[in-house]
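Bench notes, bay 3.
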Amino acid sequence: MPWRLLKYGLSKSHNEPRFFPDTKPLKPHYDVVIIGGGGHGMACAYYLAKEHGITNVAVLEQGYIGGGNTGRNTTIVRSNYLTPEGVRFYDTSVKLFEDLSDDFDLNIFYSTRGHFTLAHTDSALRTMRWRAEVNKHMGIASEVVDRQLIASEVPYMDLDCAGHSPVMGALYHAPGAVARHDAVAWGYARGAYNRGVEIHQKTRVTGIRTQGDKVCGVDTDRGRISCNQVVSMVAGSTPRITEMVGIRTPIEIFPLQACVTEPVKPFMNTIVVSGSLHVYVSQSSRGELVMGASVDPSVLHSTRSSFDFTEGLSDKMLDLFPFVSRLKMMRQWAGMSDITPDFAPIMGKTPLDGFYLDAGWGTWGFKATPVSGKTLAWTLANDRNHELIEPFRLSRFADFDLVGEKGAASVGH
C-alpha cells in the first residue's frame, strides 16, 4: 500500500465525506417507491431527480447497494444487437456510459476495448453478417472480419482451438467496452441521494398494497409506506415481486456464473466472446481475467456457484488461450438471470395502474443500466412508455409481437 494512501487514510484532517449517510426512518408517503437498489434502480432514481424534479422517492434494497446482479456480472458494454429495437436501445446506453465519469465526477473506469464475437460455424458466421448489416444500417460500428484480422488483433489466441471448432471469422464491434460495475451503481446512488432521494438498504419488501386496480402502498419489514407509483427493478427476484400483485410474466430464472483469475500484466486489449464455446473474457484494469459462461441448464433461484462451471469454462478457455493454464482462479460467483422467451427485456407500464416493470434482463442487464434508468424515469414522470421501451412492453407476449433478440446473445442459452 502506498505511504501516501496510508497517511491519507489515518489523517483526521482529510476526512472524506461518506458516500451515503446513515439510514433515516421511512417516511409515511413517497411519490415513487423503487424496489431494488442495483444499478437500474439507482439510475432510475437519479434521472427522476435530475431530469424530472421528482425527489420524494425511496429506493428499497433488501441487501446492499449493487449487491445483486449489478455486482455479479462481467461488466461488458456493447450495442451490436440483432434487432433495430435492441440496437437503438443499447446504443443510447453506450453513449450515456461514455459520459458517466464526468456526469458523476467519479471514475467508473470506462475503457473502450473493441469486442470480438467469434464464429466457429457457417451458421454462426451467417448470423454475424446479419447483425453487422443491422448494426451498420443503424449507424453502429460493427463488421465481419476474417481470421487474419483476428490474428493480428488477438495474436495470443489459438484460432484453431486445439483442433476443436476452429474460428472462421468474427463480428468486430469497435465501441465494445468494460466499466467498473460498483462505481456505476455508487455513482448513480450518490447523485440521486445528493438530489434528495432516500436510499434504504436492508429493507425488504413483503407486500404491495392496491386499491381497486391501482397501487397505493408497499409493506416492508420496517413498516408500511403509501405511494403513488411502484417500479420493480429486482432482476432475478422479479417473480417474487410480480406474484404480490398477481401479474404473470413469462420470465424464468437461471443461474449465471462467472469468475476471475489472479492479476497478471496487461496483455488482453480486447473483449473476446464465443457463443459456440460458451465463454467470454476480458482483462480488468487490475489485470485479472474476468470470465463467464452460459447460464446453467436448469431453472434455479440460487446464487450458488459450482465446480462444474469452473471445470467446463476452464476447458473452453484452454482451447482458446492455452498459455493461461497456470493461472490461478481467485473467485467465482453466480447471479440470477431473468430470461424471457424472446431474449428481450420487459419494461414499462403493466395492467396494474401505478405499477411498472424493469425485468427480463438475462445476461445483458449491466450494459443497459443508464438507458433503463433514463427511460423508466421518463415513463414514470409521464405515465406512458418511453418510445425506446415501447417494443419491450409486457403486453407483447399476449399480442404475439415478440422482439426476437436471441441471435445477439453473447453465449448460448
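Next record in the batch:
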Amino acid sequence: MEPVRKARLATLLGRFWSSSLASELEYPLNVAVEVLAVAGNLAGSLFVLSLFFGEGRSLGGWSWPASLVVLGCYTLLEGFTVMLLQPNLSRIVSHVQNGTLDFVLLKPLDSQLWVSLRLISPWGLPSILAGASLIGVGLARSGGGGSLATAAASLLMLLCSTLILYSLWFLLATTSIWFVKVWNATEVLRALLMAGRYPISAFPSGLRLVFTFLLPVAFLTTVPAEALLGRASLSWLSGALAMAAALLLISRLFWRFALRFYTSASS
C-alpha cells in the first residue's frame, strides 16, 4: 500500500474510532460492569484451572505458571473480541437485513476493511489488561522469555492468533449474506474456542487433531504461549504463520464470492 494511502487510512480510522469511543463513553457505568464481569470470569477460569493441579501434578506437561500464560493469551483474545470483532462483525447481519450494506459498498474504501474496523469498543480493555497481567505473572514465575528473539517470536505469534481469530469470525459473519440467524453460530464458535483456556496437550489425541487442523485453537493460545516461554519449535511457528496467512486469504476470497450473491436493497 502506498504511503499516502496508508496515511489517509490511518486518519480515517482515527476519526472512526474517536467518534465510536465518544459514543461508547456516554455510558461510563459500563466500565464498572465490564471490570466486574472480567474479574468474575477470570476468577472462575483460575478456579477451574487450579482443579487440575495438585502436589507435583501438571496439565498435559504444563506447569501452573506456564498454564497461566496460556490463560493470559486466551484472556487477551477475549479483550480483542470485545474491542473489535463484536462491535463490527455483529453489524454485518443488520447491514444485510436492512440493506445498508449498499452504502458500504458504494464508499471509496475497501468494504471488508470498513465492516471490520469501523467501530471500536473500550470495554475490551479490562480483559486485555488482565490477560497481560496473567502472562506477566506466568512468565515471572516460570522464568521464561527475556531474549530479543523470544520477544519478536511472541509478538509475531500473538499477531497470528488475532488474525486467525478475526478470519474465523469474519468467515462466519460473511455467511449472513445467505443465512439470517448466523449470529447464533458465532456464539457456538466462541464457546468452542473456550478450549483455548487450556494447553492443547491436555486434550486427548483426537481432540488435539480437531483443535489444530479443523478449529485451530492450538494456534490461538498454546503456540503463542510456547513462544512467550521461549520454547516454541520452528515447525509450530511456521505452522502458525501459514495458518494465519491461509485463513486471511480465504476470508478475503470468501467475502468477494459472497458479495456476488448479495441482493441490493435498491434492486
